[in-house]
Amino acid sequence: MSDLQNIPIPLILASASPRRVELLAQIGIVADQIRPAHIDETPLRDESPREMARRVAYLKAVEIQKDHTDCSILAADTVVAVGQRILGKAEDAHDARRMLGMLSGRSHKVLGGLCVLAPNNKQVLKVVTTSVTFKRLDASEIEAYIQSDEWQDKAGSYAIQGRAGAFVKSINGSYSNVVGLALHETANALKGLGLQIPGLI
Q1: 3-state SS of the chain?
Q2: How far is CA 79 from CA 49, 121, 158, 162, 197, in A?
Q3: 55 located within any domain
Q4: Residue 200 included in any domain
Q5: Which domain does 176 fall in, by range?
Q6: Between these two residues, 52 and 196, which has the higher pLDDT value?
Q7: Is residue 201 situated within a structural domain?
């Protein structure tokens, strides 16, 4: 890791998520580039939620690293799961209603895959798990949330940092992980690789 010490390393965020950009900014980090990775995020046959979060985050990072070997790559993936059932991004409002109904009155897991690839071929690859418990939702609450359009492009069809925050009875683990990027683990991963990232404390 000594070859990276005191040398500013360009950081590429392999995500188009504005939430991840905002989360990084919250801890003083601004990526030098934002380059979304375009990969197939379909779950594999018999793949567990944890395995999917880990695999997709890694593939996103590798996809971007191919053309940017002199940069550090940060990639993440968020998987929402009820038991071993993966709740992806809703295809339409009907699908979102179905997911919210599944989350109503019960606990679920948010698994955040995190991958950092450094120019010296070192890497950090891990999964951060947060448990979230929803109150029981009635039909009018679900419908009002559907009308807000917040469910669109969200794993599990909700955004905890938005109106769905009122649905959450309790949370065990990283809040930022549910939003889209576990900040404590991300900062530790960057530091652990010896990367000199502007803004990283």
Answers
A1: CHHHCCCECCEEECCCCHHHHHHHHHCCCCCCEECCCCCCCCCCCCCCHHHHHHHHHHHHHHHHHCCCCCCEEEEEEEEEEECCEEECECCCHHHHHHHHHHHCCCEEEEEEEEEEECCCCCEEEEEEEEEEEECCCCHHHHHHHHHHCCCCCCECCCCCCCHHHHHEEEEECCHHHHHCCCHHHHHHHHHHCCCECCCCC
A2: 6, 26, 12, 18, 27
A3: yes
A4: no
A5: 2-192
A6: 52
A7: no
77 catalytically annotated: yes
CATH code at 18?
A: 3.90.950.10
Structure confidence by residue, pLDDT tens digits, 138-160? 999 999 999 999 999 999 999 99
Please pick, among 77, 92, 95, 153, the residue that the annotation labels catalytic: 77
